[in-house]
Specification:
By secondary structure, the protein is of the alpha/beta class. About 20% of the residues lie in helices and about 25% in strands. It binds zinc ion (ZN) (3 copies).
């Protein structure tokens, strides 16, 4: 299974419009530190599934017919805004699997165009080509699913944004599921204030310790977290890294090892 982190940013991205903090200045100067809307491409064999559609250039990145499906975590704009352009295209319908959110976002349900919305149910697996996605409830301000993704060679990867901690049932599931890899919401630096909708550094590390995946990538990163990491160079546990836009990872037995 190949995971490509197409975007790793919190809403607003890095650099944040108008911000001159150390992280935003660095991203202005060095494009590799930019963080776009949080999303990932999951590939296994001939199967290609896009998780979340916040990138505004989906129509340029993915030729017609090149995706088996799009899977949405939730309907916040930074996760669906690319659909507003894509929907007016021509050709075959694109399956869009989504959590049960009666509101969706703006007029996406009313005018779906190419998009074929399919409603998921928690803990009910759906098979997409060579991949099986099991929706896991998360804790956020809209109905939100993370996904336990299993390839047909047994490789397991969990993708969990956006969330503030984990519901007990999701944590229990993941503890026994034993992920090879995990991508986890880590939006904020350690915070003394009540958190809103997302993990801070401390809570993300607590969730990782509870779930114990083999490897973890922190994603949905806000500029204040990047600035804090630059300023304090905090230690991370082994096998935990901060994801970068454009980073690709091969997980599992069938992965191509670099020689
Ligand atoms: Zn988000
Ligand atoms: Zn900033
Ligand atoms: Zn959100």
């Amino acid at each position: 299974m190949r995971i490509s982190f197409l975007g790793t940013g919190a809403a607003g991205g890095v650099p944040l419009y108008g911000c001159a903090c150390i992280a935003c200045s660095r991203a202005q100067d060095q494009a590799r530190y930019q963080r776009r809307p949080c999303s990932a491409l999951i590939e296994h064999g001939d199967t290609r599934v896009l998780i979340d559609a916040g990138l505004m250039d989906l129509h340029e990145r993915f030729a017609p017919g090149s995706l088996n499906a799009i899977v949405l975590t939730h309907f916040h704009p930074d996760h669906v805004q690319g659909l507003f352009h894509l929907r007016w295209g021509r050709g075959a319908a694109i399956p869009v699997h989504a959590p049960p959110d009666a509101d969706g976002c703006a007029d996406l349900y009313k005018h779906p165009g190419l998009l074929d919305f399919q409603r998921l149910a928690k803990f009910e697996p759906v098979r997409i080509g060579a991949l099986t996605f099991t929706p896991l409830p998360l804790i956020h301000s809209k109905p939100t699913f993370g996904y336990a993704i299993e390839a047909d060679d047994g490789t397991r990867f969990a993708y969990l944004t956006d969330t503030l901690g984990l519901p007990a049932a999701t944590e229990v599931f993941l503890k026994s599921w034993q992920a090879d890899g995990l991508a986890l919401d880590c939006s904020f630096p350690p915070s003394q204030e009540p958190l809103r909708g997302h993990n801070d550094w401390t809570l993300a590390l607590a969730s990782i310790a509870a779930v114990a995946p083999k490897r973890t990538w922190l994603t949905h990163v806000g500029h204040a977290l990047d600035a804090w990491v630059i300023a304090t160079a905090p230690a991370l546990p082994a096998q935990v890294t901060m994801a970068l836009d454009g980073e690709s990872v091969d997980l599992g037995r069938s992965s191509a090892q670099p020689c």
